[in-house]
Write a structure and sequence with these properties.
Elements (H helix, E strand, L loop, with lengths): L2 E5 L2 E4 L4 E8 L8 E6 L6 E6 L6 E3 L7 E6 L4 E6 L8 E8 L5 E4 L3 E6 L1
Parallel strand pairs: 2-11
Antiparallel strand pairs: 1-3, 3-8, 4-5, 4-9, 5-6, 7-8, 9-10, 9-11
Length: 118
């Protein structure tokens, strides 16, 4: 069964750090752009960061630039999101996704909850 599995979410105080991981099972996504999105309560899901298939190109939404770092290890079918200087506004369910060449989402993970307390 092909799936993406996130882990690493939890409760952290403002200013703290968390590291999210996404592992691909059932197939490799080493040739695909991948990304992290988040959905806060009452809000639409938004793309937070993305990374090219070889890791050489990354993109971040303005709200997380300088605080979050996306990375991938294709040998381990793993993508990570290092989050630092967390703010209560970062509270959300974080989802990883793999994209098609056309930029559509091919696969979503089920998400991991990040809660940042003030």
């Amino acid at each position: 069964q092909v799936r993406l599995k996130e882990s690493g979410g939890g409760l952290v105080q403002a200013g703290g750090s968390l590291r999210l991981s996404c592992v691909a099972h059932g197939r490799t996504y080493s040739d695909a752009t991948m990304g992290w999105s988040r959905q806060a309560p009452g809000k639409e899901r938004e793309l937070v960061a993305s990374i090219s298939w070889n890791g050489r190109s990354t993109w971040y939404t303005d709200a997380v630039k300088g605080r979050f770092t996306i990375a991938r290890d294709n040998a381990k079918n793993t993508m990570t999101l290092q989050m630092s200087s967390l703010e209560p506004e970062d509270t959300a369910v974080y989802y990883c996704a793999a994209y098609t060449d056309e930029g559509d989402v091919e696969m979503w993970g089920k998400g991991t909850l990040v809660t940042v307390s003030s």
